[in-house]
Design goal:
The protein is mainly alpha-helical and 436 residues long. The protein is built from 18 helices and six strands. It has a three-stranded antiparallel sheet with strand order 1-2-3. It has a three-stranded antiparallel sheet with strand order 4-5-6. It is globular and about 80 Å long. Bound molecules: carboxymethyl coenzyme *A. The site of carboxymethyl coenzyme *A (CMC) has 19 residues, from loops. Carboxymethyl coenzyme *A binds next to loops.
């Protein structure tokens, strides 16, 4: 970051002396006012619940221009990455800052493939869960448990440990998600097949059984790979910030990523893909497209807590570029599978059309986000609705680990310790129980 020529001056109407605060430029995007010395100089904190105006760190990984609807990984537009690169290239880019050439890609892919199996004992840990446990409950447990199995990569201050933990996490997430699925349907776990692509191997572990040969459908493989690319990173979102905050205490990388998985689960974040599909199915059950108007009235009613899931975003005040790409993939997959007339896809298009013209959505700049179409694609591929968020976690793991490693390498990093505006009782004395 570069110190700007200008500075910010904070003045007070009660006569307290004003303070000058340094301003920094990034390479693109809003400048920041450095308030780190504010408390020492004024005895005051800033107040910004929800981080509406707060940059929590400096980062060189992902940039979003929410007004333009632009998303860049390491400077490359998501549209170009989704069209020209696969997930392994994207992982290399996010982790190391550059797109690999043919040899570097092969070496990276081989390295990841070498770590796709999980310790056999993980199966017994998994078996402790109820069969009907939510996959995200299982994933939170399994990812956290990795630290109990890979003792040689738990020192976050050791660059070699961080490196191997990153590779292990990227390699093992598909295995864990597929194991959680197989466990829920009572089928045998399928071991990874390292001659398949990252997405192809995941499909094999999900859908193959030991009884029959399984052939990966290339259209679905490509669609899944694109889902992974589109979800790989997204700047300082809630789960990434959780990973950073958790990791800032010096905890091991597996524990920090498990915290990210837990945060992602919520319906305002990664859980929105599951919630969105459930919403579409509910509307379909109520009567489908003919009930869209009625549903939208509920969404707009401030007394109902109904939201149009898959719509709106804290940063995008324009069409989420990932949603456009996802809509494209949705059409491709449905056509390839002969599901062009899929009623949920038609319903989603009808909802989108109404929302994009409706004053409520237009005035609030609410557009479809990545979760609006991803559920329809995943459902068509044969992934159960309850597993959608786990797929998101699988894909986001590379972003989490890249951001965590970036933070540890940042000389300005400190343990994250927000402060508060206290609104509880001031000091009072404890009375004996008989007098309370
Ligand atoms: N449906 C109806 N109204 C909405 C929606 C929606 N999906 N999203 C925002 N609004 C309204 C909100 O009620 C508020 O209205 P008003 O100004 O009258 O009070 C206004 O738009 C601003 O919303 P906000 O809640 O202040 O915005 P936020 O930045 O705090 O929340 C959000 C962002 C993503 C949590 C929210 O838009 C939302 O809950 N969307 C649905 C869930 C969803 O699709 N989440 C996935 C996000 S993208 C993937 C990811 O990050 O994981």
């Amino acid at each position: 970051m570069k110190l700007a020529d200008n500075k910010a001056t904070l003045s007070f109407s009660n006569g307290s002396p004003s303070v000058d605060l340094p301003v920094y430029h990034g390479n693109v995007g809003p400048d920041v006012v450095d308030i780190r010395k504010l408390y020492a100089q004024t005895g005051m904190f800033t107040y910004d619940p929800g981080f509406l105006s707060t940059a929590s760190c400096q980062s060189a990984i992902t940039y979003i221009d929410g007004d333009k609807g632009e998303l860049l990984y390491r400077g490359y537009p998501i549209e170009q990455l989704a069209t020209n690169c696969d997930f392994m290239e994207t992982c290399h880019l996010l982790l190391y800052g550059n797109l690999p050439d043919v040899a570097a890609k092969a070496a990276f892919t081989k390295r990841v493939s070498n770590h796709t199996m999980v310790n056999e004992q993980m199966q017994f840990f998994l078996r402790g869960f109820r069969r009907d446990a939510h996959p995200m409950a299982i994933m939170t447990g399994l990812v956290g448990a990795l630290s109990a199995f890979y003792h040689d990569s738990t020192d976050i201050n050791n660059p070699e440990h961080r490196e191997i933990a990153a590779i292990r996490l990227i390699a093992k997430m598909p295995t864990l998600v597929a194991m959680a699925y197989k466990y829920s349907v009572g089928q045998p776990f399928m071991y990874p097949k390292n001659n398949l692509s990252y997405a192809g191997n995941f499909m094999h572990m999900m859908f193959a059984t030991p009884c029959e040969e399984y052939v990966v459908n290339p259209v679905i493989e490509r669609a899944l790979d694109r889902i992974f690319v589109l979800h790989a990173d997204h700047e300082q979102n809630a789960s990434t910030s959780t990973v950073r905050l958790c990791g800032s205490s010096g905890t091991n990388p597996f524990a920090a990523i498990a915290a990210g998985v837990a945060c992602l689960w919520g319906p305002a974040h990664g859980g929105a893909n599951e919630a969105c599909l459930n919403m579409l199915e509910d509307i379909q059950r109520m009567g489908g497209i003919s009930k869209v108007g009625q549903f939208m009235e509920q969404v707009k009613d401030k007394n109902s807590s109904v939201k149009l899931m898959g719509f709106g975003h804290r940063v995008y005040k324009n069409y989420d570029p990932r949603a456009k790409l996802m809509q494209e993939t949705c059409k491709e997959v449905l056509t390839a599978l002969g599901l062009e007339n899929d009623p949920l896809f038609k319903l989603a298009m009808a909802l989108e059309k109404i929302a994009l013209e409706d004053e409520y959505f237009v005035s609030r700049k609410l557009y479809p986000n990545v979760d609006f179409y991803s559920g329809i694609v995943q459902r068509a591929i044969g992934i159960p609705v309850s597993l959608f968020t786990a797929i998101f976690a699988l894909a986001r793991t590379v972003g989490w680990i890249a951001q965590l490693n970036e933070m540890i390498g940042d000389p300005e990093y400190k343990i994250g310790r927000p402060r508060q505006l206290f609104t509880g009782s001031v000091r009072r004395e404890v009375q004996p129980i008989s007098k309370r």
